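I'd like us to work through together how a protein chain folds, taking it slowly. To get us started, please write out a protein record for me. Label the sequence line and the structure token line clearly, so we can match residues to local backbone shapes. Once you have written the record down, we can walk along the chain together.
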Amino acid sequence: MTFQKRRVEGVLAAVCFCMALLALTVPAHAASVSCPNCGISIGGNMFVSGDSISHYFCDNCSRWFYKTSTRPRLTADSGTIGSVTVSSATCTSPRQIRNSCSVHGDGDTVFSGSPLGHSWKETGSTTPTCTAPGSAKSACSRCGETKTEALSPLGHAWRETGSTAPTCTAAGVLYQSCSRCGEATTAPIPALGGEHDWRETGRTDAACTAPGSASFSCSRCSAAKTEALPALDHDWHETGRKNPTCLTAGSVDYACSRCDETKTETIPQLGESHIWTVSGHTDPTCTESGISGYTCSRCGAVKQETHPALDHNWTEDLRTNATCTTPGSIRYTCSRCSMERMEAIPQLAGDHAWTETAHTDPTCTAPGSVSYVCSRCSETKTDTLPALDHAWSETGRTDATCTDPGSIQYACSRCDFARSEKIPALGSAHIWEETARVEPTENASGSVSYTCSACGASRTEPLPPLGLDLSLSALLERLGLVLSAALDWVAALTDVVVRHPILLISVVIGLIGVSVLTLRRLLKL
């Protein structure tokens, strides 16, 4: 491992040595051109005049300078200051810069930027109508140029003002007017054609003695007609009947279902006297009268005869004796209709004389009881004794840690019943504190020991050997840092190198040599 590491470091040292050697061979010329008057960079405003003279224009102080191949640097006295003429941009032409050198004569004309473009303002207009065109006049607010644009006619905006509907046999008319100019026009609506499509629109029903009528309208053209409906005559229906008896005549009533007219027809009586037969009988009860019904077998006449109520026949069937606190009662039942009635017995004088007859002791979870009987009226009662509840005493404990809960065990001293109570964990995580450390070496592992300050738990974490990272990614990362520094150095010198062909050739040869040397060293690794 140590030998390979030294080979990589040797390659990097050789590359750095070559770069430093090249830096010593490059002349210290400036990479950019600055104005000798105000110091602002003017490298982007060079205008070439011939092979050996270059003119520069400074946008900051609006002055011209020049240099020759024998005087490569611009200084305050390196050239003769000329003059410059600047023309502002117009709506149609860009900005012009014209230089004049006092030594070399007229120079170049430079166009800078773009034309401003017209700024049109409307100065007048003629509104178009439905049939005639209009116009709009405009003038430029910068150069005064004018223009006129034609506006197309608007065209009529027709809207319907009325119509005559067509029929199946005659055409209709549509009336329209323009909402802008008021011009009016008409257009024909074709006849529908074909036969009428009659739909009933109204009806007057015919009565029993008077005719009616039906009105119709064509669903296509709104034509109308009326047809007569003949009278219906009466439609008699029986509405009531009174049957004849042996002593009176009967009758039948009729009404017309259409016009509500009525009529009555007489039915002759059946004879001179009734012929009675029993049609029904209801016996009397203890509280209600009885009834006997009769019907005439010839005419159907009816009559009734009433029988008086019988009254109740009471018999005692149940008795409840009175006690020291409650009255008693006697129940009677009627032997004919099963109706019942109650009769009260007054309660005995004084309070109960209770005597205990049974006793059940309470436990920790179940209540007890005491039973009593009254020696005077024999009434009984039972009193409840409440449960005693458990008498808990601690029998065991498991302490909680940071992550695990604990518990407490209890037992009842009366009934030996046991229960457990949970103790929450001390926290969501251990509070680890380092207590010991063994540092690792290149070939041996190390370790770190921790102890929880809250619950006393402990743990140990291993530390891997240090070793030497000779992976390809690590080597490439180091080589990348060296190449990045070299590229930054090359970029700073590029502007000077391109102006010296001999220096450019030397740099290229040097870079090729360094690359070959570096590649051979990497292949040997």
User: Anything to note?
Assistant: The first helix runs from residue 2 to 25. The two ends are 11 Å apart (CA to CA). Residues 354-385 form one domain.
